[in-house]
Every structure is written in structure tokens, then in C-alpha cells.
Amino acid sequence: MSSPTPASLEVSGLAYAYPDGHQALFGVDLTVERGERVALLGPNGAGKTTLVLHLNGILDAGAGTVRVAGLPVAKRNLAEIRRRVGIVFQDPDDQLFMPTVREDVAFGPAASGLRGPELEERVHSALKQVGMEEYANRPPHHLSFGQRRRVAVATVLAMEPEILVLDEPSSNLDPASRRELADILRSLDVTVLMVTHDLPYALELCPRAVILSDGVIAADDRTQDLLGDEDLMRAHRLELPFGFDPRSVTMGA
Length: 253
Description:
Elements: E1 9-17, E2 23-32, E3 37-41, H1 48-55, E4 63-68, E5 71-72, H2 78-84, E6 85-88, H3 101-111, H4 116-129, H5 145-157, E7 163-167, H6 175-187, E8 191-195, H7 199-205, E9 208-213, E10 216-222, H8 223-227, H9 230-235
Parallel strand pairs: 3-8, 3-9, 6-7, 7-8
Antiparallel strand pairs: 1-2, 1-4, 4-5, 9-10
């Protein structure tokens, strides 16, 4: 019998204090299976960014372990971990720095040694996944904000990651761009961890949600159930838009 496929992400007992003594995480346990889409929710200062920065080794665990597809996040594995964990920043201009869209998307795979037709195919495939293949020769700064965000996603997809981590993916998007990005994210065959304050977007895209509060996992359940628990939401400073009823939304897969 073949061994079972390891979870995309396994976090166990993760604790972390910054050099100034501020304790940001107090023993986080989280498992995300292959192909899951999970929303990471919580108030400002809850430790969400600190947790994300452990996933690709930018921060080194003070205590506990982090594994990506069964591989420990450790110095000896950092090159492979950073290929497997793709982070899409809130501001696409933090990710796009080359003269053309094509060069931005090619940058990561080329740095990993991909060349020639294989590189071109990887770039074309990533741009096609986000509906931006027609813009390959455009300068990124000539694109709309929503288009730049889609290209930023493509730069990560070109690395064929195990996990796509999205930091506030819907921020500053107009309604049409917001919907287009949601359609793209639903179509991807990749594990998604979405850090967001946009609770309706989390409900639309992520069947499961985790609330991180004061450095610990305070809740982990179906997104619809978490958002419908008024006492839980109030206790962790999470607020739905006025008049929005999560129980009235038909959940997608």
C-alpha cells in the first residue's frame, strides 16, 4: 500500500516571541489538507502575519514545528519550502518589478534554473490560469490594480506551489475585479490559505475558517457557522457588514 499523502500544512505547538519580548504566538496547532481553502481570520495584532511568516521560513519557530507537504520548515529545506509556499502580498507592486508581465512571471522559475521552452510554457500556463496571457508583453504599471493583483498571483503560480497564501486579496478591488479574482481562486487546484478581514469574501471562497486571536487558535469550523456565531464574533472583534446574514448565503465548494 502507498503511504497517505501528507497534509499541505501541519503546524504543531508553534510559539514565537519577537526580539523585543512581545509574544505573538502561544502554541498554535493547525492542519490544512491538500486542496482545502481556509480563511485565516482575526483582529489586528492577533498574530496572523507572524504565523504566515513561519510558513516559508522568514521567521524561525521559537518552539513547535511547521511542515509543508511533510517537509519540515528548516534552514536545510528553505529553497524547496519557498517554492512550495507562495505568498501573494496585499500590494501587488511589492511583487512586480520587471519591465514586462512576462518577465515578472518568469523571474521565479528562471531563478530556479528553468530555461527555454519549459520556462515559456510555465509562464504561459500561469498567465492563462489568471486570464492575463494577452498582457504578457505589457509593462505591469500600465495595468489596472485588479490586473496587477492577478499577475502577482501568476508569479506565484509559476512556481507550482503546494500552498497559495493570500494577504487581503480583495482589498482595493472594484466589484468586477473582486468577482473575477474569486472565480480564478475557485478554479485553482492548489491549497489556499487566505488572510482577510473581508468576511463575506471568506465565506464565498473558503468553506473552512480559523480565528486566530491573542496568538492562539480561538475557533476552527465551517466558515458559515463561525460567522453566524454572534458571541464568538464579538469576542474576537470581527464584524460583518451591516445587514449581511451569513446564514442566507449558499456555500460553494
